[in-house]
Amino acid sequence: DCPLIAPVGFLDSPEECLQEEMEINFKELDGHLWIVGSPGSGKAMTLETILLSLALTHTPEEASFYILEYGAGQLLKFKKMPHTGAVIRSTDPEEILDKLLNYLDDEMDRRTELRGEGDIAASTKPTLFLVINNFAEMRTKYPDHADRISKYARDGKAVGLHLIITTNRRIELGKLS
Prior knowledge:
Elements: E1 5-13, E2 18-25, E3 33-36, H1 43-57, E4 63-69, E5 84-89, H2 94-116, E6 127-133, H3 135-141, H4 143-155, E7 161-167
Parallel strand pairs: 3-7, 4-5, 4-6, 6-7
Antiparallel strand pairs: 1-2
């Protein structure tokens, strides 16, 4: 069982004269990450840092990325990474998004069944990361698909599926929060 830690930088505390490593542990709390910031604040760059960090510290057999890029396109470069199963944009046919969500639903069901049977193979499957850059755009264009994501937020951590979502404002996450 490998740790799911992504080192992302340093926390600087000048008043305490401290600079500590900052890392995100996806096995803590609910196992998901929500990044909120105004346009141009660095949300996509933060996603890049997290994904590159995970790719450097985990093999493709340990971590797989599925990216829904509804922002300016900065995450398209991850298509070429061996860790990446798919990068989908809002300009892609809706069937591609359907296919990905059906795959994730089936994979969650398989993993839940294996876990219930106490099958050791369930723990050797790669951790899945569903990355959604600009969730508000997804909710606007594909409201039914966005509602399906709540299942992953609720039950994903238990079967190795983690969400990383960006929004411009808190209210944009809607029902997932």
